Amino acid sequence: MTETQVLVTGACGEIGQALVQGLARRGGYRIVTADLAPLPDTISSLVSEHVRGDLLNKFKIFYDYDFDVVFHLAASLSSKAEESPEMAHRINVEGTMQMLAMAAYRSEKYNKHVKFLFPSSLAAYGFRDLAEKTGAGRVKENEWNAPQTMYGCNKLYCEKLGVYYSRFLGQRHLEPNPPAMLDFRAIRFPGLVSAFTVPSGGTSDYGPEMLHAAAQGRPYACFVREDTKISFMAMPDAVRSLLLLMDAPREGLTCPVYNIAAFSLTAGEFREWALKAFPGAQITFEPNIRRQGIVDSWPEALDDSKARVEWGWKPDYDVDRFFNEYFLPEIRKRYQ
Ligand code: SER
Question: Given the CA of residue 199, which atom of ligand 1 is nearest to it?
Answer without folding.
Answer: 1
